[in-house]
Design brief:
This protein is an alpha/beta fold. It has one domain: TIM Barrel (Alpha-Beta Barrel), CATH 3.20.20.150. Helices cover 43% and strands 12% of the residues. It contains twelve helices and nine strands. The protein has a nine-stranded parallel beta sheet with strand order 3-2-1-9-8-7-6-5-4. Strand 2, helix 2 and strand 3 form a beta-alpha-beta unit. It is globular and about 50 Å long. The mean pLDDT is 94.
């Protein structure tokens, strides 16, 4: 990776309250303006339809602000074969839109961020953050998931030349460290390493778990999401049996530097591992929770302190 650009920082609509169909935050022009004002270089797309779906207009919105389109999240219920074709169609729709902005930055092309659809299975939704061995997929179900992942990634690459990365996620069937490793072993797909989802999905609260996971999965990490976890909320969620949405509403994913994860150590390790590319702040707030612009500014200030950015 010699000569590659250093780590760069982005943010995403979920930090402004627009979150995978759960909530609608501020209008996208305000969100992009505030993201730019806070000093971030790029943004993810957010839910399809939140930003313009006309590629010419979308390109103008990013270009006039000097922003990079980092990628877009697409959840597919991968354990069901019948969901693969509709999921592929949604992924291609999003990928074709992103492809119109693929030349905005010479060092970065937007990524299709694929995930197993979270919160759809009742058991996983109600037991997020406390999944035990034996509560996951059967070998045959894993084969179905792997086929779906490879099918969608291949279609996106062949259609528009963009790369697909996999996002493990709480309340999905790829949540725990063991499940993540099974997924990459079966598919060979690169990962988005989400610090908050990794920690919560591990069933633990010590920030060192994130460093352990990064080291173990280093060869698969293509992209990084920065999310902190409030250990008190995580413990209370497990003790009281909160579902995933209840944990979110109670502030599970807190601002960077206010939770269990030492991001100074995270970035030291990323540097050691030779990571180059974007690291994107994703606080996952819901409408009415906090003040997004101020939160983005505080996260930026924290990142500057611990990374020199």
């Amino acid at each position: 990776m010699e000569g590659a650009p250093p780590i760069r920082f982005g943010n995403a609509p979920c930090s402004w309250g627009t979150l995978e169909g759960v909530g609608q935050g501020v209008p996208y022009p305000q969100m992009l303006d505030e993201l730019k004002e806070a000093g971030y270089e790029g943004s993810e797309l957010g839910d399809y339809g939140y930003m313009p779906t006309d590629p010419v207009l979308l390109r103008e919105e990013f270009q006039k602000r000097g922003l990079v389109l980092l990628g877009a999240f697409e959840g597919v219920y991968l354990r069901e074969v019948s969901e693969h074709a509709p999921g592929e169609a949604r992924a291609l729709r999003t990928a074709r839109l992103m492809a119109a902005l693929a030349d905005l930055d010479p060092e970065w092309k937007p990524l299709l961020v694929l995930s197993d659809e979270h919160s759809r299975d009742p058991y996983r939704f109600h037991h997020a953050g406390r999944i035990h061995p034996g509560e996951g997929l059967s070998p045959e179900e894993w084969r179905v998931v792997a086929r779906g992942v490879k099918r969608i990634a291949t279609s996106v690459r062949e259609a528009v030349g963009l790369e697909t990365v996999f996002h493990f996620h709480a309340a999905s069937f790829v949540e725990t460290p063991e499940e993540i490793e099974t997924l990459v072993e079966l598919t060979g797909i690169p990962l988005v390493f989400d610090t908050g989802h990794y920690l919560f999905g591990s069933g633990r609260v010590e920030g060192e778990v994130v460093l352990e996971g990064l080291r173990r999965l280093a060869s698969w990490v293509r992209y990084v999401h920065l999310k902190d976890v409030d250990p008190r909320v995580a413990e209370e969620a497990r003790r009281r049996g909160w579902n995933y949405l209840e944990a979110l509403r109670n502030g599970l994913f807190t601002e960077l530097g206010r939770g269990a994860i030492d991001f100074g150590q995270v970035f030291a390790l990323l540097k050691e591992l030779g990571y180059r590319g974007f690291a994107t702040v994703e606080q996952d707030v819901l409408p009415g929770m906090g003040t997004p612009k101020e939160s983005a500014l505080r996260s930026r200030a924290y990142l500057r302190r611990v990374t020199g950015w």
